[in-house]
Amino acid sequence: MSGFKHKCPMCNFYMGSFKPYGFDLPVMYEKQVVGGGRRENARCFICGCLDRERLIYMFLKHQTSLLSDNIKVLHFAPETVLSRKLKSIFSHYITADLNAKNVDMTIDMTDIPFPDEHFDLIIANHVLEHIPDDKKALNELKRVLKSMSGLAILQVPISLNSEQTYEDFSIDTDEGRLHAFGQEDHVRLYGNDYGDRLKQAGFDVQVFDWKSSRTLYPKKKNKFGFIAQEKIYIVKNTRN
Fold first, then answer.
1. CA 163 → CA 53, 192, 194, 196, distances in Å?
2. What is the pLDDT of residues 50-69, one digit of tens each?
3. Is the pLDDT of residue 138 over 90?
C-alpha cells in the first residue's frame, strides 16, 4: 500500500498500489473480458472506490465541462464513492436503481418516469448487462436524454475476442449465468459489436481511450489505476 506510484483522484491519497478486486472466473480469461473479473490494482485502500469509478470521474473532470455546469443528472446503480463525489457537485442529481434501497428513486430502465429530453447527463456503469430487454432500455435512455447537448456514459463488460454479443435466455440459473456471462445476474456478455448496438438505438457514439489523454495517462504511466484496455462509451442524442 505505501508508496507514491499511484494516486486516487477521489480521495487524493498516494499509494504504492491499489487493492485487488473481482472474481477469478475462467470465462473472464477465456473471453478476455474488460471491466470484469479479478483486477490486481482496482480498489482504493483509503476510500474504497473502484477503477471504473475513478475513470468516469476523471473523464468528466478533465475531458468535459460538465462538472462546472448546472445540469440535470441521472445516475443508475450509483457507485458509492463516485455518487458521493457527484452529489457534492450537482444540485440536480438523481440516483436510481430497480432493486437497491439507498437511491433517490426506484426506476426500471425500460420505463423511466421522466419527460422527453429531461437530462443533460446520464451515467449507467455496468447496468445494461443485467437487463433482458436492453434495446428497450436504450430507447428509454435516448428519450430522456437532451438532444444535441445531452451526454450519456454507458459502460459494460466487453469480451475483446468476441465479435458478437452473446446472450442465451434459455440460461436461467445462477450457476449457468455465472459460467456463461461471468456473474449470476448478468443476462449477456457484450462483444466488439457493442458500439454498433448503441448506434442501432439511434445514438451518436464516441469511444474514448484514456491513454490518449496526457492528464489521465501522465508520462504514459497508469497513475490512477485504470483498467488498461477499458474505453469509455459516450453517446449523444443528436437525432430526432
1. 26, 5, 9, 11
2. 999 999 999 999 999 999 88
3. yes
What confidence tier does 4 reach under pLDDT thresholds 50, 70, 90?
A: confident
Q: Give ∠ CA 154-132-104 in degrees, rounded to 5.
A: 55
CATH topology of domain 50-220+227-236: Rossmann fold (3.40.50)
Residues 54 and 80: their CA atoms lie apart, in Å, by 12
Query: Nearest-CA neighbor of 224 among 54, 63, 79, 96?
Result: 54
Residue extents of the structural domains in the chain: 50-220+227-236
Question: Residue 237 to residues 137, 142, 147, 183, 196: CA-CA distances in angstroms?
Answer: 14, 6, 5, 30, 15
Return phi, psi of residue 138, to 5°.
-65, -40
The type of residue at 144 is: V
